[in-house]
Write a structure and sequence with these properties.
Elements lengths: L2 H14 L12 H8 L3 H13 L4 E3 L3 E3 L20 E2 L3 H8 L8 E2 L13 H12 L15 H11 L12 E3 L1 H13 L5 E5 L4 H9 L3 E5 L1 E2 L3 E2 L1 H10 L2 E6 L13 H13 L4 E4 L24 E6 L11 E4 L4 H11 L5 H12 L3 H26 L5 E2 L7 E5 L6 H8 L4 E2 L1 E2 L12 E5 L6 H18 L4
Parallel strand pairs: 4-16, 6-7, 6-10, 10-11, 11-12
Antiparallel strand pairs: 1-2, 3-7, 5-13, 8-9, 12-13, 14-15, 15-18, 17-18
């Protein structure tokens, strides 16, 4: 770890622990240089990291200060999902969200898009260019159904950060995380089977259940601690659940990180009832905390956890490269992979292996985590400023999604229809429920750096909410 990153994390921990309080002046650059035995430029770089993360603010001729304490909205209520399996609906609304191109003349607050405009992605573009110019055409051949060995080795190395020791031979490269989820579900379930899911939950996973003719059992979920383990245990006793599917780290859409003790307890429950776990870790590397949270897979000793992720949220969605570590279900996953897409495209795999292997991935992650954390705070400020009093919002611990909860009788689908003529789109909360719950909620993306255009879009959402509540639309 570079010295300035280590110093920034030390100072950040002191701020988070209250050693430096809101409004306090932070140590001078020279004082920190002497205290830690580092150069003045190292301290200045550390302060820039803290500034990007919203933990320090410079004042001309005065030094750095801890920003004033931010007001934050109340958290959303814990969901009260029905304790019975249901058929998944909402496909038409999901299609309406995903069919629009990111290049349409619409401010996309609803899509799960990372920011791809930063300079830290330039090495990836150079790698893609080099590979495409190779005379041997190596990027044009089929590779193994497992994926390229070079990328699988890099994925295995990255997995160490989440506490996992996974051999490259136990990793399968997929066409995005969506395919990883799909092959995992098909490998463990049959049509008519019941899958327990967190609620609200990623709409892509639930639409996969719908496509395969399976039922979802939505579990009550807390915006800080994740799914109710008590509700899960009752469900396992009452229903023949074939799979537990969840996103425990930097959850989409609530943004929580499930505490480590609860992850262990969840795995213990799955072992007791002999049920596999499908762990979606696509946002795990974007956790604001360091080190990043451990996965449930890292505690797994009998191969029942299928760990899925991708580079779509951390690097770029258009690369379409994901992966799965399926444990005991490897043979089935390979078969499902073969009959769905076969081998994943070779060229982007080679480019990503080069990008990660040459040390470009970690600096890119540091930049994006800092940007997303700052953008989260700004988006939250805008919601408090422009939305009606009493609006609740999540407090994401990673990723770039904010979940907003309005009054019980509000209709976010109607909101979306009213926003489109204004050039703005949000994701209605009902998309994240198998049965169409959360119509009074919405999800907004804050991945881009805050700009006047994005602020105007958020203001348009808040003002339209007020108009709908007042009966003016």
């Amino acid at each position: 770890m570079k010295l300035y990153i280590k110093l920034a994390e030390t100072l950040g921990e002191r701020i988070e622990q209250g050693y430096y309080r809101p409004g306090d002046r932070l140590p001078s650059v020279r004082a920190l240089s002497l205290e830690h035995g580092v150069s003045l430029s190292t301290v200045q770089q550390a302060y820039r990291v803290l500034e990007d993360g919203g933990l320090a603010e410079p004042r001309p001729k005065s030094g750095y200060f801890v920003p004033p304490l931010r007001q934050t909205p109340a958290l959303p209520e814990m969901s009260r999902a029905p304790q019975r399996p249901v058929d998944v609906s909402q496909w038409n609304d999901v299609l309406d969200l995903v069919k629009r191109s990111s290049r349409d003349n619409v401010v996309q607050l609803g899509r799960g898009m990372p920011d791809i405009s930063g300079p830290t992605l330039k090495p990836l573009l150079r790698s893609l260019g080099r590979i495409s110019r190779r005379q041997d055409g190596s990027g044009l051949y089929y590779d193994s159904i497992y994926g390229t060995e070079a990328l699988r080795e890099q994925v295995a190395r990255l997995a160490l950060d989440s506490g996992c020791q996974i051999p490259a031979s136990d990793i399968v490269i997929t066409t995005g995380c969506h395919e990883a989820l799909s092959v995992a579900i098909r490998s463990t379930c049959e049509p008519g089977d019941i899958v327990a899911v967190d609620s609200p939950s990623f709409h892509g996973a639930m639409q996969t259940l719908k496509g395969f003719g399976m039922k979802a059992l939505e579990l009550p979920t807390d915006p800080v601690n994740g799914i109710s383990l008590e509700a899960l245990e009752m469900a396992l006793e009452q229903w023949p659940i074939k799979l537990i599917q969840l996103t425990p780290s930097c959850n989409n859409p609530l943004g929580y990180i499930m505490p480590e003790a609860r992850k262990r307890a969840l795995l213990t429950l799955a072992q007791r009832y002999d049920v596999p776990i499908l762990e979606d870790d696509v946002y795990g590397d974007l956790a604001y905390q360091y080190p990043r949270p451990r996965t449930i897979k890292s505690f797994d000793e009998d191969g029942r956890v299928m760990l899925c992720s991708s580079f779509s949220k951390t690097v770029a969605p258009g690369i379409r490269v994901g992966w799965i570590a399926p444990g005991r279900y490897l043979d089935r996953v390979l078969h499902m992979k073969y009959i769905s897409t076969g081998a994943t495209a070779t060229q982007p795999q080679l480019a990503l292996a080069d990008f990660v292997g040459n040390g470009h991935y970690e600096p890119h992650l540091r930049r994006m985590r800092s940007q997303y954390q700052h953008s989260r705070d700004q988006m939250t400020d805008w919601v408090m400023r422009y939305f009606p009093e009493g609006t609740r919002a999540s407090r994401p611990q990673g990723g770039f999604m904010l979940w907003v909860e309005l009054g019980e009788d509000f209709d976010a689908l109607r909101l979306n229809r009213a926003l489109l003529p204004k050039g703005v789109q949000i994701a209605a909360g009902s998309l994240f429920s198998a049965s169409g719950k959360y119509r009074n909620c919405l999800r907004m993306n804050y991945s881009s750096k805050p700009t006047a255009v994005i602020e105007a879009a958020v203001r348009a959402v808040g003002e339209t909410v007020k108009e709908l509540m007042a009966g003016g639309l």
